[in-house]
Amino acid sequence: MKHNLKDRVALVTGAGQGIGAAIAKRLSKAGASIVAVDVQSELAVSIAHEMTKAGGKALACCANVANKLEVEEAVSAAIEEFKRIDILVNNAGIIRDGWLANISETDWDSVLDVNLKGAFFLIQAVFPSMKENHYGKIINISSRAWLGNIGQAN
To answer: How far apart are the first and last CA of the chain?
Structure first.
């Protein structure tokens, strides 16, 4: 099935590599303008350049999704560049593998901040644009890491 996303703008977190990069490329091939958000600036720039070189429109934004200010700045840059956000793909996620008895509070907090608060911050930041334009799709991705291993906490 072919999808036409011409004139749509998609913001993808964790877009610099792996599943996030594949999602960003696929949305770009379907015609969407892409906002490639990654905590590693060089990865975001590289993937945005790759999509632009292939004829798409892309903007690279460096942001830690666990930081509300950085999220708001990335969304503002996206709206400044493309005038709106139609699709949000919350793909960024981390794991800090650790046994229940040994996992640090810092590692626990890091996982919750990126995987949960990050998605919340992004949804909150893009919602006004989606509401104003009467259109929005939000895709929240998880991994099989939730299955975990015996004795692991996060």
So the answer is: 37
- With both helix axes pointing from N to C terminus, report the angle between 41-53 and 18-29 in degrees, rounded to the nearest 10: 30
91 near 19, Cβ under 8 Å? yes
Statement: the pTM of the whole predicted model exceeds 0.90:
yes
- How far, in Å, CA of 23 to CA of 14, rounded? 10
Q: At what angle do helices 68-82 and 118-132 cross, to 10 degrees?
A: 30
Q: Is 117 exposed, middle or buried (0-12, 13-18, 19+ CB in 10 A)?
A: middle
8 A C-beta contact, residue 47 and residue 19: no
- Structure confidence by residue, pLDDT tens digits, 83-104: 999 999 999 988 887 777 788 8
